[in-house]
Queue: 3 jobs
Job 1
Amino acid sequence: MASKRALFGTDGIRGTANTAPMTVEVAQKLGQAAGLYFMRNQSRRHSVVLGKDTRLSGYMIECALVAGFLSAGMDVILVGPLPTPAIAMLTRSLRADLGVMISASHNPFTDNGIKLFGPDGFKLSDEVEGEIEALMGEDLSGRLASPEQIGRASRLNDAAGRYIENAKASFPRGLRLDGLKIVLDCANGSAYRVAPTALWELGAEVIKIGCSPDGLNINDGVGSTHPEKLCAAVKEHQADFGIALDGDADRVLIADENGTLVDGDQILGLIARFWKQHDRLRSSTVVATVMSNMGLEKALSEVGLELQRTAVGDRYVVERMREIGGNLGGEQSGHMVLSDYATTGDGLIAALQVLAVSVETKKSASEICRVFEPFPQLLKNVRYSGASPLSSPELTAAKSWAEERLAGRGRLVLRASGTEPLIRVMAEAEDEALVVEVVDHVCDAIRAITGN
């Protein structure tokens, strides 16, 4: 039986910095437990690649993790602020036993998180996370390294350059970005150096916003969760494209030359159709989550492609892709997984694929990025206190009523947030009034149950 997880959520451990579970004590114990778990072969040295985003609390969590890994006898390779996909890439490239990214992704600077990658560069399964969490609950003092076996810490000075070259290698050989003016918003996060450099070296003129981190301004009014500045800047500078990453650069949104935002579903549809035309899409299948628009599913089916859905979270998208042998998946929020080039969501590499379509077809962003007409979709978040109301009889009844109203015409998705006490209520159908009706009905039911 798999060990039960309490610390790990849908994307590692996450919470308010310096408050449980994002404390020095938890980070150090995690370093010890994860280090011991991955130190299987005692005849050689073991290593972990450790990166972070630009949050002030990253220094604190980093030091605690380093202490934990070293005390377990594992060597630590420090790479500093780099995108999450860079940590996954470097873990494989350096033949490390483990990769760790300190980031709360698109959350404000007050939060932080810890994501773990196995030696293959993929996020750990629920089962492995459960086993590590179980180890954290044990007394590990008798299993830590002897004085002569304590690990060593070193810094990899060319880590950023390695990732830049890896990203550039995903752009089709023979193509360049010469003549393209691109507004790039790095959310004052982990890609603030590497993303502008990669685009510039490929020939683009790069206008930077959100590239001046100070430890407190990550995702603050910038990035993929706040794309207003990006869209305005594209129009102001008469740019050809806008690219918005989030704090750890594993997701991306695009703005066309008119400043119109392009979400992850449109990006997924664009890459899928382009890859199909060039016989690059494996298994004739695209993997997305339950949140992706029905319009995407319809557009893909019209060109002979299947859309398979998973639970929310790019790790579940990746798991399904590996099961079916697919090489393209993503989320409406902007996580794009292109497994020919990366083992996890990579916003920069996904953006380069969109740019490649534009360069190769000689078409503008607005011409290529409107792949389908989305069904009306509405998402509302309802905050609650105490136990989750998801399994309550009252909410079950409200859900049944809503599904009957949508029968054959749309979808309803209810799910709990993995990081906050929120119930996310999403519905979509071709009838917008019907969508509003069912979402409001379910939200009212949740408020009545929780007294909010």
Note: The chain has a mean pLDDT of 95.
Job 2
Amino acid sequence: MSSESQIPIAAKVASRRFAARLAAFYATLFGMTGVHLPFFTVWLKAIGIDATWIGIITAVPPVTRFTVLPLVTASAERRQMLRGAIIATSFATAFGFCLIGTQHQPLLVLAFYALTCCVWTPMVPLTDAYALRGVRQYGLNYGPLRLWGSAAFAVCALASGFLLGYVAAVHLIWIITFMTVVGALVAVTLRPLERPPAASAAAAGARKLLRDRGFLAIIFSAALIQSSHSAYYIFASIAWQQAGFSGLTIAGLWVLGVIAEIVLFALSPRFTLRPQTLVVIAAVSAAARWAITAQDPPLPILAVVQLAHALSFGLTQVGIMGLMVHHVPSHIMARGQGYLTACGGIVASTTSVVCGMVYARYGLGAYYMMAAMAGTGGLVMWLSRRRFIAFSSEVGTGSR
């Protein structure tokens, strides 16, 4: 057999290996989030930390998204070592959660969690950047690779909920830590990629973005609608536990939302409405979702409300990504995504702190504030809709 005929076979094998290892890493990355998001706050409460401190501690990840994260990702790309940065941050994250698990004082937990988040939060954008380079190199599709992350989130949330019936809440941190260790080991298996050619800077174009009212509407709407999930992310598990729901039921409620999200992502290529319209629909759905949740509905209604996560989170992502692809020039897309992440981080961190204070005083009443935020995000997009040219949504992707 000639060498020419062997090349396509070798390329297919390399492509499959890249895809399998990246999918496995996405699974561990978001599987860890599937354990962390529902149960980290439960662990904080179990070790005696009050609601105000919980709000402050859980505000840390969004803060690092607009402070440390851009520095880490820029440094990794400048040195053309995305894979090395993923491996380094994976092991540092595992070590950080090991240290967090040994602490019980609010200030010390906050300090170690803040340091850990400096290496943990850059992992998703680093992985996405690595994935997109691999997609281009091997001719793959991003969606099927990223889908494993959402699926693993659901499976791990459900499994951890089952374990909550057998593991004391004060030990939940070690389940989270275990997932970070697995992720670090899988990161080592990621395949090296070809180094891309050096790209010229586009600082002028990036600065121009911040004077574009359409772009500002995109990032502000996304920040308000997605940050309206703060009360849900921080206090839903605590409220459900206080309502007498079992750990498995709590995990099942989380999984319902994620499954609905996965289905929406899978169906999103068929959407024909304009992205700005999708964002408005998502905002209205989010506002309705939080208003109903504030009423402390019974389990059957709550389960139906959880399905609205497909709209409040998933549809927002689909619409915003569609707007970004069509409104932001390709040569400054990375900078545009950075501004989007930074704006979201600022709003989310502020919301987390305020939400903790409001929840401590008004309980589920904090969801009314979330409904107002989502509605405001939808209003911003509705008032700015004419700034975007007419086009159909072609993008169906998202990240947590």
Note: DSSP finds 18 helices and no strands in the chain.
Job 3
Amino acid sequence: MQQLLQVSAFFDGETLHKNCVVELLDGRVIHTEEIQGHHPKAEQIQGLMAPGLIDVQVNGGGGVLLNVAPSIDTLEAMFNAHAQFGTTAMLPTLITDDVEVMEQTADVISAALADKLPGIIGVHFEGPHLSVPKKGVHNASFIRPITEREMAVFCRQDLGNVIVTLAPETVSPDDISRLVAAGVHVCLGHSNADFDTVTKALNAGATGFTHLFNAMSAFQSREPGMVGAALLDDNSWCGVIVDGHHVHYDALKLAIKAKSAGKIMLVTDAMSPVGSDEDSFDLLGARVLRNGDRLNATTGELAGSCLDMARAVKNTIEKLQQPVTEALRMASLYPAQFLHQDKTLGHLKVGAAADFVIFDDDFNVTQTWVNGARLF
């Protein structure tokens, strides 16, 4: 189906345009053009059209958690909750759990992809091969060495984009290389590894760091740790949670200055309260309480976030003083590049998927479109 839209502002992933006509056909962008006045055949839209936001770390939303109920219904509820806030593609995230739950989740993700469930483009396994001293809210009873059974789950070829977060002191460089050879995006996190161990993991093919600064060995003068390795490496991406609770805003400003351009991406690490009025929930034996926009386990640890991607973009603009265009790239283009999906995702140039969001002047989401269809 052919569609013609005219927007007052248009960001194609590289350049910000004014008064632009965007032509869609069968879920793709086929033409964009700045014009004077109104196009008589175009649907008029006030606001900024930007590439759809891509969240590679989403534990839950809409009152449900992937770990609690790995099912198609859960995936639909999670995506519908986040799509209200501009997310058009996401990797549902399973935190450290039993291998049977991992296998069940993989089967559900495979079915969702086969059925072309909107917004689901893969899966993120955050654990279970982590460091107990840096486990955060993860249940230590499930943290374990990697075996062939977990490897078989990670290396399935029917799961779309697969991210595995692991601690490099618990998984050998050979196993990291094996994962990478199978197409897995290996991220490092929940780790107390020293700089040399992290460097060996990067050399083995790891390309990402999960929630930079959080649950990882800190930068010190005589031991740069995982934070130092992450900021020094030019070829890896760092996810950051810009909610004002996980990381001090000035620490994030410093990270942006230090890290290679285009290598910091926004994530939410969102839990079930996003898109719902839930104020507490259970997470693998831990009770988590919501206090405003902050989530803490009753034992004190931060337990994911209440953040959505639109708020992450707004915070990046207002609190980190990043240009609008860069904040949008951090939420769309850079995650797409990390996943090697930037031919069709993360921008709105000709040939791109017609996944986009409409923002008002205050960066509230007024519309979300996926594959050329308006969802909200």
Note: The longest helix spans residues 99-114.
